[in-house]
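Q: What residues go here?
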């Protein structure tokens, strides 16, 4: 019972952060779950399963309300898929002891970026090549704690 309450509180806090910033649900949830003693693989599974539902509902809501730019979706879909697939395959083939510091650095960098965005320092969208826009985040998303 304690674990269910703990996971629910972590999810509530992470969703609060995500709702305020528009990002960082996975980073916040992973960090808090691992901090509370949940194994990294279990934290990754919990985050990814909860994101399936929330992303599906969010996407359906945006589609229904006409907020979907299908041109942008077409640009991001394939590179995002391939980046996620490549990241998951790469990380599953690497020893966990080798991957942990790299994943920790990635999570730290994402956390610093979230704080940077929260403080209002980034008001303009960065200019990035279209192919990299979906590939890099896809690889980093899939590369969570897979081991």
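A:
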């Amino acid at each position: 019972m304690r674990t269910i309450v703990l996971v629910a509180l972590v999810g509530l806090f992470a969703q609060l952060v995500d709702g305020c910033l528009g990002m960082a649900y996975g980073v916040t949830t992973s960090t808090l779950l691992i901090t509370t003693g949940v194994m990294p693989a279990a934290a990754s599974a919990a985050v990814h399963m909860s994101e399936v539902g929330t992303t599906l509902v969010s996407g359906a809501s945006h589609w229904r309300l006409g907020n979907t730019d299908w041109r942008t979706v077409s640009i991001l879909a394939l590179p995002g898929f391939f980046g996620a697939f490549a990241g998951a395959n790469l990380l599953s083939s690497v020893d966990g002891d080798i991957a942990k510091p790299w994943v920790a650095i990635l999570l730290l960098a994402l956390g610093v970026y979230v704080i940077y965005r929260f403080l209002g320092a980034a008001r303009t969208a960065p200019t990035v090549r279209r192919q990299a826009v979906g590939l890099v985040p896809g690889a980093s998303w899939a590369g969570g704690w897979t081991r």
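A: Context that may help when evaluating the design: The chain has six helices and no strands. Residues 8 and 14 are 10 Å apart (CA to CA).
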